[in-house]
Amino acid sequence: MKIKIAGIGSYIPEVQIANTDFSEHVFLNEDGSPFAYPNEVVIGKFKGITGIQNRRYAEPHLNSSDLAYFAAQKAISNAAIDPETIDYIIFAHNFGDVSHGTIQSDMLPSLATRVKNKLQIKNPKCVSYDLLFGCPGWIEGVLQANAFIKSGMAQRCLVIGSETLSRVVDAHDRDSMIYSDGAGAAIIEASTDESGMLSYESATYANDEAGYLFFGKSYNQDLDPDTRYIKMYGRKIYEFALTNVPLAMKTCLEASGVAIGDLKKILIHQANEKMDEAIINRFYKLFNQTAPKDIMPMSIHDLGNSSVATVPTLFDLLIRGEIENQSIKKGDVLLFASVGAGMNINAFVYRY
Fold this sequence. Notes:
Layout: E1 3-11, E2 15-18, H1 39-50, E3 54-57, H2 64-79, E4 88-92, H3 111-119, E5 127-131, H4 137-151, E6 156-164, E7 181-190, E8 196-204, E9 213-217, E10 228-232, H5 234-256, E11 263-268, H6 273-285, H7 300-303, H8 310-319, E12 333-340, E13 344-351
Parallel strand pairs: 4-5, 4-6, 11-12
Antiparallel strand pairs: 1-7, 2-3, 6-7, 8-13, 9-10, 12-13
Helix pairs in contact: 2-3, 5-6
């Protein structure tokens, strides 16, 4: 038995933040000292490395669970199913609902329960829970849905990835420009044809790597040190990803039985354009090949890094023909992959 994505949907917030909107920010070094060069240089270097020109922030009256609800509605509609037939709602996020203008995370009740309530699903056997797995959370949710369905515990699952990272960033940290908000959702069920998941890979590296992403104080020494923001050791993450993600992708592809030349698209977590390009190039080098020019659709340029939402949103945009010069057709083989806090890595090979 294989599982397939029977429906997909995403919610892209309407508030667009351009790189130029950071021109008046007071960026500081970790010790609180000012940069030795102007913001125009900071922003220029940032764009050159990440590829990000714009990002989306959630509207002030909306929380992560609201974005998730909108994406879930679209996925349910796309799958043309009765939501009462959903057996599991798996909601991947990292920071819960953080209301605009506040600093406290709210996860009671769980965000999955909030979405079930908003969808007005009455079936008590629709089990709803949250999944904390860093940026690879949505893919891990799909892998869990695969296990539920194959074991007979479920026939249909709703897997969501949603985040409002703009509300947990330190405005004085230049890394804050990376993060964005958004949501993606998918209906997962058993496949009745040749489409579906062919193989998967998942791993957690938690010895030296556990603290590469963490919560820390603002770089502004005048702010409350007990108020915490998302922080990362970017160079360590970059080196970790380049070493380990291509190997995981290779293991996953080999387990599928699909030849590297038959792979049509790679949908990778939209973390950093240069890092993603380097991962893909190293992946192909493991097969002594050169990466095809159009193998990797990208959305980071205009949407930024919305963590768990990037991969399902990318897939939704791809199949709707909204990524320039990118398309897929029935029977194409795709490789989904992600890396993030944990440090966690996962991937799956999928026949569309």
